[in-house]
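A quick aside before the break. I want you to see a complete sequence-to-structure record at least once, exactly as it would be stored in a machine-readable document. Don't worry about memorizing anything.
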Amino acid sequence: MVNIDARAEEIKNMILKMGAGNFSYRIPRSADNTETESIIALLNMLAQEFEVAYNPLFGIPPTTMITRVQHYFFILDDQNGVLQTNFNIDTDSPLEKQNFLNILSSTSQAAFKKLVKTLKKKDKTLHTQLEVLSDKKLVLPLNCSVVQIEGSHPAAKFLVMLSHIQTLNPLLIGKLPVKREYPMLKLKVLKSSQDIKKFRDIEVYIRKHSNEPLVSLKDIASKFNINEYKLKKGFKELYQTSVFKYHLRSRLTHALQLIINTTDRLSAISQKTGFKNYVHFAQAFKKEFGVSPSHHRKQK
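That is the input. The structure line, written in tokens, reads:
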């Protein structure tokens, strides 16, 4: 029997990695038939869906995702004390009369102090991103807007609005609610918008040919007029995985969608998604999602 606390820690770490934009991480599966293992299987599949659908560079949810935005308001005094708020994420005690800085990470505390200092000199709305700490010690990155106010409360000095962007995957609605933040990532290999466009074209090419054997990196590099080194490094930088893994995961994601949305035989699905035989397909599917294709079909 696998230690429950250890598995819970792995689940928490994976959620934090996904919150930071890392969708390539997977939790190794065990042979236990428990609710915990079912949750891990769903998390692994969820990460797979996001990895294929999400473009980490531009921070834009794909068109197949449903986006929800929640706003949280704080009215602060001149010492950053909370006078009123509708914030209710993982808080067991009321935030009124507490210091707003207490719910921020140390880095965000410094950023907020600097922003307020600037705001006092420039009477306008300023924007930043803050890391909010929940009672469960999880870091929640939220977009922040701050403006000076003169409200009905005599001590009111600042209005802070935190915006929480959530997305729902339509394929998983009714099964598991998911949320996703969209941070910007610093690029090292990709130096221009032309580079980025070229790698987006490469990604489209790979996805369109995902049901066929992948041609060599040399051929792909030649087709798009770049060298192999830049192809490998640039693709991993933009999509957080290698060309070969992306190609395989695109196949498996297509297969997963066919299993969910059709009644096609599993052997036919393996052929449609370009696998040499069903055994190879089933092995790859279980390694990626933690369950066999037949087990997933029974869970529909």
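Two observations worth writing down. The chain is about 45% helix and 15% strand. The beta strands are 66-76, 82-85, 126-133, 139-148, 158-168. We'll return to this after the break.
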